[in-house]
Amino acid sequence: MLKVTYHKSTKQRKSKLNGLNSINTSVLSNQFCSKMRTDKNSICSSCYAAKQEKQYKNVKLRYLEHLQILDESILTNREVLSLKFDSKYIRFHSFGELASLNHLLNLYKICYLNQRKNFALWSKRIDIISQLNFKPSNLRLIYSNPVIDKKVPVPFLKHLKSLNFTGVFNVWNKKTALNQGTNINCHKNCNDCLLCYKDYNKGIMQVNEIIK
């Protein structure tokens, strides 16, 4: 059964997604993620989600089930409508990544059947997203730049826009960002910002965060 996560900060731990919902899948069981974690130049090599899955068995099992559901079958309307969202803005994959076209189609279906909600999907899987020439109007597609301390080249930005991406998420070391004069506009509190979740009408939005 697919379950929605509600993120809430505690005294012991601040949640970047405090007050927002997300739907997540396993990174340990995703072949793409496993390959990316072996690349030392990739942000995936320090994957927070993988560490959490290894530490907490219930998280690992739940997100493995989610991955299997989204990857191996198409959700029925009844299954989609049974999902309960507490927030107006929902993130696909605070843990996880697309595994297949079927996975993406299921996420699109969730968007189409929840038109009053706003969704955002972070992904590196251009190979999957490029197979469709459309996306739901209430979904923001954010390209998750896998390379630390490097901007996406302008020609590639144009390509991303042609594939319906609305933004790029970059991760920087603090020293490099300072030396290059990078505008750090991700301040680790999504519900107060919502930059990634709302319309952006100036081409491709660039979101920059300091690495954890």
List keywords for this structure.
alpha/beta, 9 helices, 212 residues, 16% strand, single chain
Quickly describe the structure.
With 212 residues, this protein is of the alpha/beta class.
Structure description:
It is a single chain. By secondary structure, the protein is of the alpha/beta class. The protein has one domain (5-210). The chain has helices spanning 31-36, 48-55, 57-72, 77-81, 101-112, 126-129, 154-162, 174-180, 190-193, and strands at 5-6, 21-23, 89-92, 118-123, 139-144, 167-172, 205-210. Strands 1-2-3-4-5-6-7 form a seven-stranded mixed sheet. The mean pLDDT is 94.
Number of helices in the DSSP assignment: 9
The whole-number mean of residue pLDDT values reads 94
Instruction: Give the strand line-up of the largest sheet.
Output: 1-2-3-4-5-6-7
Order of helices and strands: EEHHHHEHEHEHEHHE
What does the largest sheet look like? 7 strands, mixed
User: How far from one another are the termini?
Assistant: 32 Å
The tally of structural domains comes to 1
The tally of beta strands, per DSSP, is: 7
What percentage of residues falls in helices of 4 or more residues?
A: 25-40%
Which shape, going by the Cα principal axes? globular
**How much β-strand is present in the residues?**
15-25%
Structural class: alpha/beta
Flag low-confidence runs: none
Over all CA atoms, what is the radius of gyration?
Answer: 17 Å
Secondary-structure topology with pairs:
Blueprint: E1 5-6, E2 21-23, H1 31-36, H2 48-55, H3 57-72, H4 77-81, E3 89-92, H5 101-112, E4 118-123, H6 126-129, E5 139-144, H7 154-162, E6 167-172, H8 174-180, H9 190-193, E7 205-210
Parallel strand pairs: 2-3, 3-4, 4-5, 5-6, 6-7
Antiparallel strand pairs: 1-2
Helix pairs in contact: 2-3, 3-5
